Structures are given as structure tokens and as C-alpha cells.
Amino acid sequence: MASFRRLLPLCSSLRGTRFSSSGVYERFGANVCGYSKFTSSVHTVSKFEEKIKRAEADASEDNDDIDNIRREFDAAKRSFLEIPEALKAMPKTNPEGIYVNRGLRLDLIQVYGFDYDFTLAHYSANLQNLIYDLAKEHMVKEFKYPEVCMSFKYDPSFPIRGLYYDREHGCLLKLDFFGSIEEEGCFYGRHQLSEEEIVEIYGTRHIGRDQARRLVGLMDFFCFSEACLIADMVQYFVDAKLEFDACYIYEDVNNAIQHVHHSGLMHRGILSDPHRYLVKNGQLLQFLRILKEKGKRLFLLTNSPYYFVDGGMQFMLEDSTGNSDSWKELFDVVIAKANKPGFYTSEHPFRCYDTEKDTLAFTKVDTFLKNKIYYHGSLKSFLQITKWKGPEVIYFGDHLFSDLRGPSKAGWRTAAIIHELEDEIRIQNEDRYRFEQVYIFASGMFGTFYYHCLEL
């Protein structure tokens, strides 16, 4: 069996292959080699076969083990070479489909709840430009950042959802499922760090528990403009050769982003030009009406203020409804400024909002009335007033933490609206992605085959 040990370099190279996911991660430097890798893998199979032939020639006597290996290898090779044609026949995943990770009987769902932003209302790419510009302006005027920062422009090709920022080292990180920094997913400002630079900073690509404490996640719909602004500010200080504390950069950018939201600057900007920022959906009204006709109860639960929701709903449904206020008739309960995720754990009381006087009533809320707007509140009070049981309620939102984790603990079913998955699924449907998967499969298959040879 000594002759088989000469296969070690070949199989080691296969086992060392890694796959970098594409799609939304492509902007952080990932690469897909596509069909070229598959064809090179076919060549690798041929080289593997030559080595087996040499091993057979070196054998001084008949060896049943070699015959068995030859049969197994021929079977594996036939299966491998037939994979491309099989891939073409495989059905593709619908990027606009609905997917579940557990059984759900819709006939048992009696109550449908909705978040507003990025759930009922969807926005164009211009929104991130607006948030970015308003935040950088706030940093220059209020936090006294250099005037040159006003020339910064939002780069939609740079950020992705789900990044982490290291408040100590100032790096933006993309972590994999196991908490390790992806090989091409670490940026210092706009500079992509090499694997050697990553190891120099962190000692290893794996983020330990102590290191994780200084990481902050960028998860909500502000994360794109926030990540881009953080990177641009870090890059400015690096280029200007100025000392800075990476933690202060995050605090200032985050405070500026929160100011844009809580001050109403973003809301007023959107409503001032809804055609530029809001995306109409002609099926929205039809969907809500179908639910009502089927006897379902509907509620709206959002952190946004009422005037912003009202203006947006009127704009999105103006082509479908004659009465500008008719959107409220679709919902049994409308709750604004709910302060999620605190809504799910607090015991704040509900307050009735007067839409004409822009004031909150002082009377206790012990029932929800149609066409009335309610502010604040808590999940505990919501359940006490409505008497809606957890398993019969489903809530739709876009944020895994502020929208979906709290309701699931109350027994509600939850549904996530994640638009990035559409692009990701489309990429996974492409031939280049599928051939890359074949390459990985082949690497593992022949690597396993080699170690089986060694055992013999």
C-alpha cells in the first residue's frame, strides 16, 4: 500500500478547498469561480485515475483491495461526471416564494399582525442615501466633525445586513455561522484586510467570547447607511493620519443615525417626496381585504409615529381607495410608537392618540375601538384587552430581534420579510453557483475516497 501514499498531495489540495458564498456577501470581496473550477476538477479526476493505474502497475502480486478500489473509483467517477446534466434538470427555487421551518396550519390562524416599515411599506434604494446624508450632516454640525465629511457619498455596493463592528479595533466584520471572520469579510475603513492582517489583529480568525463582547451588530434597516458611514469615517481618520478611538466613531455614528430616526428628519424627508422613497404595491389592499372577507382580525403594530404611517398608507393606497382614511378601517387595532422590542417585556399602559389635536388622552385604555389610534402599551396589556390566544396569532416583520423574537416568546407565530433572500436565491439558481457546489461535493467525495484507500 506504500504506492497509494503518493496520492497524499493531490487529496490534500482537494480537502483544503473552501467555498465563499456569493450574493449579498459578494460586496465584501467573495468570489465565485463557477464552471472553470468544475472543469479543473474533471482534470483532477483524470490525474487521480493515472495515479491509481500507477499503483496497480507497482503491485507485484494480485491484490483484491486494488480491484475493489478500482470498482469504487469507477462508480464514483461516473456519478461525478453525470452531475452537470443532472443539475440542469433540477428545479430552481422560487425567489419570491414563502418558506417555513416548521408546520403551520393557516386555517388555525385567526389574527394577522403587521409591522409597518419594510413589511407593509417598502422603500427604494434612495432611502439609504437620505439616512446617510442626514446622519453625516448631523455629525458635522452637532459633533463638529470636519466639514470635508459633507462630501462623503453613500456607496450602495459596500454594506450588507448582518455585519459586526469591533469597537476596539475599528473593523467591520462578516462572521460565519461558527463565529469566525470570513476570509474576505473584514474591512478597516474601506481597506479589505488580508488573512495575514486579520491574524495580526485578532491572533486567529475565530472570535472568542471575550472579543465578542466588544462587537456590536448592525441588523436593522439603518445598518446599510450606518456601516457605510462608519467605514467612511474610519477611512478619513486613517488617510488624515489622525489618532482616533474606534469606539467613539461608532457612538457618534450610531447617535447620528438614531437622531435621524427619532427626530423625525427621516420621516419628514420621506413624506416630502414619497414618489422618490416609497414603493407602491398594487396587491397590498387586495391582500388585506381578502383577510377581512375571510373573517380574520388584523392589527398594525409599529414603532413609527402615526402621521408617518398615515401619510405612507395614503400614498401607497391612493390608487385603490377613494377615501384617504379608509386604510384604518382594514385594521381592528392600530398601535404606533410601540417602542419595540421593549413593548414585549414592559408594562407600559396604552394611550389613545387624538389625530386632530396631536395629543394623548389620560383615560385608561381597557378596550380597542375601530378607527382609533393607540400609542405605547405592552404585549401583556395587548393580550389582556384583545383576549387573542398566542397560537392563533401570526405577526409579520422584518427585524429578527425587535419584531420576531418577542412575539415568538408569547406563543405567536412569526413571519420574516427578508428581501435580501430574493437576490440570494436567484444567485443560488445560477449554473455557476451550482457547479461550485459540485466542486465542493467532488472535493469531499474524492478526499473521503482517498482516506478509504489508506485504511485498506
From TrEMBL:
Keyword Hydrolase: yes
GO molecular function: 5'-nucleotidase activity; metal ion binding
Transmembrane segments: none
Coiled coil: 45-72
Pfam families: 5_nucleotid
Keyword list, A-Z: Coiled coil, Hydrolase, Magnesium, Metal-binding
Domain of life: Eukaryota
Family annotation (NCBIfam families): HAD-IG-Ncltidse
Family according to the record: Belongs to the 5'(3')-deoxyribonucleotidase family.
Protein name: Uncharacterized protein
Highest classification ranks of the organism: Eukaryota, Viridiplantae, Streptophyta, Embryophyta, Tracheophyta
